[in-house]
Design a protein that fits this description.
Helicase, Ruva Protein, domain 3; about 260 residues; 11 helices; 2 domains; alpha/beta; elongated; 9 strands; two-stranded antiparallel ribbon
Length: about 260
Protein backbone atom coordinates (compact mmCIF):
# COMPACT_ATOMS: atom_id res chain seq x y z
CA UNK A 1 0.00 0.00 0.00
CA UNK A 2 1.57 3.27 -1.11
CA UNK A 3 1.04 5.95 1.55
CA UNK A 4 2.99 9.07 0.68
CA UNK A 5 1.63 11.42 3.30
CA UNK A 6 1.19 9.98 6.81
CA UNK A 7 -0.79 12.34 8.99
CA UNK A 8 1.08 13.94 11.88
CA UNK A 9 -2.25 14.92 13.45
CA UNK A 10 -3.07 11.22 13.89
CA UNK A 11 0.43 10.29 15.05
CA UNK A 12 0.97 8.05 12.03
CA UNK A 13 4.27 6.16 11.90
CA UNK A 14 3.96 2.85 10.09
CA UNK A 15 5.90 -0.15 11.35
CA UNK A 16 7.68 -1.92 8.50
CA UNK A 17 10.45 -3.89 10.26
CA UNK A 18 9.71 -7.58 9.63
CA UNK A 19 11.82 -8.76 12.57
CA UNK A 20 9.94 -6.51 15.02
CA UNK A 21 6.62 -7.57 13.48
CA UNK A 22 7.55 -11.24 14.06
CA UNK A 23 8.49 -10.51 17.70
CA UNK A 24 5.14 -8.77 18.25
CA UNK A 25 3.14 -11.59 16.65
CA UNK A 26 4.97 -14.30 18.61
CA UNK A 27 4.34 -12.38 21.85
CA UNK A 28 0.62 -12.47 21.09
CA UNK A 29 0.52 -16.29 21.08
CA UNK A 30 -2.50 -16.34 18.74
CA UNK A 31 -4.70 -19.47 18.69
CA UNK A 32 -7.31 -20.39 16.08
CA UNK A 33 -10.25 -19.57 18.37
CA UNK A 34 -8.91 -16.11 19.30
CA UNK A 35 -10.56 -12.84 18.37
CA UNK A 36 -8.09 -10.08 17.55
CA UNK A 37 -8.51 -6.35 17.95
CA UNK A 38 -5.86 -4.33 16.13
CA UNK A 39 -5.62 -0.63 16.94
CA UNK A 40 -4.20 1.58 14.20
CA UNK A 41 -3.38 -1.04 11.53
CA UNK A 42 -2.06 1.68 9.21
CA UNK A 43 -0.83 0.05 6.01
CA UNK A 44 -1.63 -3.48 7.23
CA UNK A 45 1.89 -4.90 7.65
CA UNK A 46 1.10 -6.33 11.08
CA UNK A 47 -2.42 -7.29 9.96
CA UNK A 48 -0.99 -9.60 7.30
CA UNK A 49 1.04 -11.46 9.91
CA UNK A 50 -1.96 -11.73 12.22
CA UNK A 51 -3.98 -13.24 9.36
CA UNK A 52 -1.27 -15.86 8.78
CA UNK A 53 -2.00 -17.20 12.29
CA UNK A 54 -5.63 -17.93 11.29
CA UNK A 55 -7.47 -16.40 14.25
CA UNK A 56 -11.22 -16.72 14.48
CA UNK A 57 -11.87 -13.04 13.71
CA UNK A 58 -9.95 -9.77 13.30
CA UNK A 59 -11.32 -6.32 14.06
CA UNK A 60 -9.16 -3.43 12.89
CA UNK A 61 -9.82 0.04 14.27
CA UNK A 62 -8.58 2.73 11.90
CA UNK A 63 -9.65 6.36 12.36
CA UNK A 64 -8.19 7.57 9.05
CA UNK A 65 -10.89 7.21 6.36
CA UNK A 66 -8.38 6.92 3.53
CA UNK A 67 -6.45 4.15 5.29
CA UNK A 68 -9.66 2.36 6.26
CA UNK A 69 -10.69 2.33 2.59
CA UNK A 70 -7.26 1.06 1.47
CA UNK A 71 -7.30 -1.67 4.13
CA UNK A 72 -10.76 -2.74 2.95
CA UNK A 73 -9.48 -3.01 -0.61
CA UNK A 74 -6.39 -4.91 0.50
CA UNK A 75 -8.02 -7.46 2.80
CA UNK A 76 -11.59 -7.59 1.43
CA UNK A 77 -13.71 -9.50 3.94
CA UNK A 78 -10.82 -11.18 5.75
CA UNK A 79 -10.95 -8.52 8.48
CA UNK A 80 -13.67 -6.27 9.89
CA UNK A 81 -12.65 -2.62 9.64
CA UNK A 82 -14.01 -0.13 12.15
CA UNK A 83 -13.51 3.42 10.90
CA UNK A 84 -13.82 5.09 14.30
CA UNK A 85 -11.84 6.73 17.09
CA UNK A 86 -10.46 4.14 19.55
CA UNK A 87 -11.20 6.51 22.43
CA UNK A 88 -14.90 6.54 21.55
CA UNK A 89 -15.70 2.89 20.86
CA UNK A 90 -17.03 0.25 23.25
CA UNK A 91 -14.81 -2.78 22.78
CA UNK A 92 -17.17 -5.01 24.77
CA UNK A 93 -19.62 -5.23 21.87
CA UNK A 94 -17.19 -6.89 19.48
CA UNK A 95 -16.66 -10.24 21.16
CA UNK A 96 -18.20 -12.45 23.83
CA UNK A 97 -14.75 -13.87 24.59
CA UNK A 98 -11.66 -11.98 25.78
CA UNK A 99 -9.76 -10.49 22.84
CA UNK A 100 -6.06 -10.16 22.07
CA UNK A 101 -5.20 -6.54 21.31
CA UNK A 102 -2.35 -5.47 19.06
CA UNK A 103 -1.57 -1.80 18.77
CA UNK A 104 1.09 0.51 17.43
CA UNK A 105 -0.66 3.21 19.43
CA UNK A 106 -0.70 6.84 18.27
CA UNK A 107 1.84 8.33 20.67
CA UNK A 108 -0.17 11.52 21.22
CA UNK A 109 -3.06 9.56 22.80
CA UNK A 110 -1.41 6.31 23.96
CA UNK A 111 -1.78 7.03 27.69
CA UNK A 112 -5.43 8.03 27.19
CA UNK A 113 -6.08 4.71 25.46
CA UNK A 114 -4.41 2.72 28.24
CA UNK A 115 -6.28 4.58 31.00
CA UNK A 116 -9.55 4.04 29.12
CA UNK A 117 -8.97 0.28 29.23
CA UNK A 118 -7.94 0.32 32.90
CA UNK A 119 -11.27 1.96 33.72
CA UNK A 120 -13.23 -1.11 32.62
CA UNK A 121 -14.59 -2.96 35.65
CA UNK A 122 -14.49 -6.38 33.97
CA UNK A 123 -11.20 -5.95 32.14
CA UNK A 124 -10.20 -9.64 32.16
CA UNK A 125 -13.55 -10.60 30.59
CA UNK A 126 -13.00 -8.22 27.67
CA UNK A 127 -9.28 -8.61 26.99
CA UNK A 128 -7.02 -11.67 27.06
CA UNK A 129 -3.78 -9.76 26.55
CA UNK A 130 -2.37 -6.64 24.92
CA UNK A 131 0.77 -6.32 22.81
CA UNK A 132 1.26 -2.58 22.56
CA UNK A 133 3.85 -0.20 21.16
CA UNK A 134 4.52 2.96 23.17
CA UNK A 135 6.99 5.79 22.95
CA UNK A 136 9.94 4.49 24.99
CA UNK A 137 9.74 7.14 27.69
CA UNK A 138 6.02 6.43 28.17
CA UNK A 139 6.70 2.69 28.44
CA UNK A 140 9.34 3.43 31.07
CA UNK A 141 6.78 5.36 33.10
CA UNK A 142 4.29 2.49 32.81
CA UNK A 143 6.68 -0.16 34.13
CA UNK A 144 8.62 2.04 36.61
CA UNK A 145 9.17 0.80 40.16
CA UNK A 146 8.82 2.72 43.42
CA UNK A 147 11.69 5.14 44.17
CA UNK A 148 12.76 5.41 40.51
CA UNK A 149 12.78 8.67 38.56
CA UNK A 150 10.12 7.45 36.10
CA UNK A 151 7.74 6.21 38.80
CA UNK A 152 4.54 8.20 38.87
CA UNK A 153 0.83 8.35 38.27
CA UNK A 154 0.87 6.10 35.19
CA UNK A 155 2.98 3.48 37.00
CA UNK A 156 0.45 3.26 39.84
CA UNK A 157 -2.61 3.16 37.59
CA UNK A 158 -1.09 0.50 35.33
CA UNK A 159 0.07 -1.76 38.16
CA UNK A 160 -3.41 -1.77 39.71
CA UNK A 161 -5.09 -4.08 37.21
CA UNK A 162 -2.29 -5.11 34.84
CA UNK A 163 0.70 -7.45 34.70
CA UNK A 164 3.27 -5.87 32.40
CA UNK A 165 6.39 -7.23 30.72
CA UNK A 166 8.79 -5.39 28.46
CA UNK A 167 9.33 -7.27 25.19
CA UNK A 168 11.76 -5.13 23.22
CA UNK A 169 12.87 -1.62 22.34
CA UNK A 170 12.32 -0.53 18.74
CA UNK A 171 14.56 1.86 16.83
CA UNK A 172 13.12 4.79 14.86
CA UNK A 173 14.41 3.20 11.64
CA UNK A 174 11.77 0.47 12.00
CA UNK A 175 9.08 2.96 10.96
CA UNK A 176 8.01 5.09 8.04
CA UNK A 177 8.25 8.00 8.40
CA UNK A 178 11.15 7.75 10.86
CA UNK A 179 10.00 9.22 14.19
CA UNK A 180 12.25 11.31 16.42
CA UNK A 181 11.76 8.97 19.39
CA UNK A 182 12.50 5.35 20.27
CA UNK A 183 9.66 2.92 20.94
CA UNK A 184 9.05 -0.02 23.26
CA UNK A 185 6.77 -3.05 22.95
CA UNK A 186 4.99 -4.16 26.12
CA UNK A 187 3.10 -7.38 26.80
CA UNK A 188 0.22 -6.61 29.13
CA UNK A 189 -2.24 -9.02 30.76
CA UNK A 190 -5.23 -8.18 32.98
CA UNK A 191 -4.82 -9.40 36.54
CA UNK A 192 -7.35 -11.99 37.68
CA UNK A 193 -7.40 -10.38 41.12
CA UNK A 194 -6.56 -6.82 42.10
CA UNK A 195 -7.11 -4.36 44.94
CA UNK A 196 -10.81 -3.65 45.32
CA UNK A 197 -11.66 0.01 44.67
CA UNK A 198 -15.09 1.43 43.90
CA UNK A 199 -14.09 3.61 40.99
CA UNK A 200 -10.91 3.89 38.95
CA UNK A 201 -11.44 7.65 38.69
CA UNK A 202 -10.84 7.91 42.43
CA UNK A 203 -7.37 6.41 41.98
CA UNK A 204 -6.77 8.79 39.08
CA UNK A 205 -7.80 11.68 41.34
CA UNK A 206 -5.55 10.55 44.21
CA UNK A 207 -2.48 10.00 42.07
CA UNK A 208 -3.03 13.27 40.25
CA UNK A 209 -2.97 15.20 43.55
CA UNK A 210 0.18 13.43 44.76
CA UNK A 211 2.26 13.48 41.59
CA UNK A 212 1.37 17.04 40.65
CA UNK A 213 3.50 17.89 43.69
CA UNK A 214 6.07 15.12 43.40
CA UNK A 215 8.87 17.21 44.94
CA UNK A 216 6.79 18.06 48.02
CA UNK A 217 6.45 15.92 51.12
CA UNK A 218 3.26 13.85 51.05
CA UNK A 219 1.87 15.69 54.07
CA UNK A 220 0.61 18.37 51.67
CA UNK A 221 -1.46 16.12 49.35
CA UNK A 222 -2.71 14.15 52.35
CA UNK A 223 -3.99 17.41 53.84
CA UNK A 224 -5.90 18.08 50.62
CA UNK A 225 -7.60 14.69 50.84
CA UNK A 226 -8.12 14.19 54.58
CA UNK A 227 -8.84 16.23 57.67
CA UNK A 228 -7.33 13.62 60.00
CA UNK A 229 -3.89 13.24 58.37
CA UNK A 230 -2.11 11.97 61.48
CA UNK A 231 -4.73 9.29 62.03
CA UNK A 232 -4.60 8.18 58.38
CA UNK A 233 -0.80 8.11 58.30
CA UNK A 234 -0.65 5.95 61.42
CA UNK A 235 -3.34 3.59 60.18
CA UNK A 236 -1.58 3.07 56.83
CA UNK A 237 1.95 3.23 58.27
CA UNK A 238 2.92 6.20 56.10
CA UNK A 239 5.73 8.63 56.81
CA UNK A 240 4.30 12.09 56.03
CA UNK A 241 7.81 13.37 55.29
CA UNK A 242 8.20 10.98 52.34
CA UNK A 243 7.91 12.14 48.73
CA UNK A 244 5.23 10.76 46.34
CA UNK A 245 7.75 8.50 44.55
CA UNK A 246 8.58 6.81 47.87
CA UNK A 247 5.10 5.30 48.27
CA UNK A 248 4.42 1.89 46.76
CA UNK A 249 1.45 1.31 44.48
CA UNK A 250 -0.19 -0.64 47.31
CA UNK A 251 -0.02 2.43 49.56
CA UNK A 252 -1.79 4.48 46.90
CA UNK A 253 -4.51 1.83 46.66
CA UNK A 254 -4.90 1.91 50.44
CA UNK A 255 -5.05 5.72 50.48
CA UNK A 256 -7.68 5.58 47.73
CA UNK A 257 -9.71 3.06 49.75
CA UNK A 258 -9.68 5.40 52.78
CA UNK A 259 -10.72 8.27 50.54
CA UNK A 260 -13.61 6.23 49.13
CA UNK A 261 -14.74 5.17 52.60
CA UNK A 262 -14.85 8.79 53.76
CA UNK A 263 -16.77 9.90 50.69
CA UNK A 264 -19.23 7.03 50.40
Amino acid sequence: MNIKYPKKSLGQNFLNDKNIIDIIINSGDIKENDTILEVGPGTGNLTEKILSKNPKKIFAIEKDKFLAKKLSEKFNEKIIIINEDILKIDEKKYSDNPMIVFGNLPYNISTQILVKWIRYNNLKNIFKRFILMFQKEVAERIIAETDSKNYGRLSVLSSWKLKIEKITDVSPESFYPIPKVKSTVLLIEPKKEYFNLKNSKNLEHITNIFFNQRRKMIKKPLNILFKNVNEISKKLNININDRPQNLSSLKYFEICKEFENLNS
